[in-house]
Structure formats: structure tokens, C-alpha cells
Fold this sequence. Notes:
By secondary structure, this protein is α+β, with helices and mostly antiparallel strands.
Amino acid sequence: MRTRGHGVLFGLALVLLVALSLWWTVLIRGSVRAEREAALREVALMALIAGERGDDFDRAGEERRIDERYGRRTVMVWGEGALLFVLVGVCFVMLARMIRQERREMAAMESFISTVTHEMKSPLAGIRSLLETAAAGGLPEDKRAEIMGMGIAEADRLEHMIENVLVAGRLRADRHPLELVLATPAGVLDPFVDHRRGLLGDVSVSYGDGGRDAQMLVDPGSLRIVLDNLVDNAVKYGRGDPEVRIEVVVEGRSIRIDVKDRGEGFDPADAEELFTPFRRASAQGATGRHGTGLGLSIARTLVRRMGGELTAASEGRGRGACFTVRIPGRPE
């Protein structure tokens, strides 16, 4: 309602500005016309006086010069009026675009808030149910480890979502700290994969020639956030028992990290759309999947701030996907 009210207010202001511009243009045009007529009357009077005195007076020449002078002023008035109307039109177009953009952002934010609320309630409900069952002594001994693992996975999911929201806020406000240091892929990836494998199952990492001990200039914490989002995305769209493979390859002066899955994939034309905040592309089959639509956008932003690039590739739906992170290596 507030957006609509602002739109009406600005629209009204533009209408009044157009009316005022038109009124001033007509008023100035009338003033120029009156000045021209007064000048012509003065020339006629001077011609009459010259005739009585017998002096030579070029009335036609004087009238022609007056017409030329006031003709130029008339053109100038209409030109300035036209320019003013063009500027008002530009303001109107910009206003319309701003209103549309604000409405899109409001709709996206409302959808995001609704999604986050739902996503928070789901794991919290599972954890609450687990704790209530445990408090009542209803956990079978043979299922205790499995059920506890499910509870830890739900807590990890909730923590991951909250971290994404916080990181997105810091990135938007340009307050996310980055401390670039030299690190090896194995030093970052091995602990990460061990942790994720315990929660998500089949996540593996392999290193090409020199990939394990190659040095890269990164913020390790930010790179873990990137990998967390990419692996979460791969598991989410992995179909059945997802298999996620992380491959590390040295490419010249940079390190390439591929996160591959054999899941649903996407149309190649939708690759860039995947990184749009708050949007989970329909090509990836987002219906019914958990997530806030922030993960891939956060990952790309962090990679770019570390001086690298994140891209997505797929051969089509049902043929898996590959997300490629390129990180600068050790500076010369």
C-alpha cells in the first residue's frame, strides 16, 4: 500500500509539473507575441512621423528585422518547452521503472521471509520431536545412533541456513571480513569433506597432479562457506542417494575446484539465472526443495571477492551439473 501511495503521489506531482510547464510555455509565448506587436506598432508610429517630416524610413526592413528577432525567440521558447516536456517524460519513465523494481524487490523479500520462516520451522520441529522422544525414553537402543544422526543433520541444516542469511546481510552491507592467506586445497577440503561426509553421505574429493599441495590465496572460512553451499546444492538436486565429487586441478596460476553431481542438472541457458538471489530456477526442479535461494549467489560473491570466479555448467536436465570455482594461486 505504501508503494502504491508513493506512486500516486509522484504521478500527481508529474501531472502538475506537466500542467505548469505547459502554462509557462503558453504564457511566455504570449508575452513574446505581445512584445512583437508592440514593436510593430512602434515602427508604424516611427514611419508615420518620418512621413510627416519627409524623412526616409525603411518600414518594411524594420518590420522584417522585428519578425526575424521575435521569430528566433519563439523558436527558442518552443524548443525550451519541448526540452522540458522531454525531461518530464524521462522522469516519468524512471519513476515507473523504480516503482516496478521496488515492487519486484518487495515481492522477492516477502517470498524470502516466507521461505525462511518455513525452513526454520521444519528442522526445529524435527529437533523438538527428537528431544521430546528422548526425554520420554522412547528411543530404541538399536535406532539411537541413527535418530541422533538425523537430529544432528537437522541442526546442521538450520545452522547452514542461518549462516547464509547472516553472510548475505554482511555482504549486502559490505561488512563481510576477508583475510586472504596462502592455503593448500587439502588443508581446506579434507576437513570439510570429512565433516560433510558424516552428515550427507557420499561426498568425495580427488586431486590432480600437484593439486593437493598447491598454494592458493584465499580466505579459508569464506571458501568453506562456498563449498558448503555448492555441496548442499548438489545434494539437494542429486536424486536418490546423491553422489558428490569434488575435483581439484591446477590450471596455470590458478586452482580449479569442480563440484560435480549426477542429479537433475539444468538447461545450459539457465546457468546464469542460478546465481540470482532469492530465485531457485525451475530448470533445477526447485519445487518442494528446501533452501532460501541465497546459497549460489553468496558463493559467487565470495569467490569474486577473493579474486576468483564461479561458473555453472550442465549438459541438460537429468544429466548432472558441475560448479567450477577458480581461485588465484600463489602470487609471483
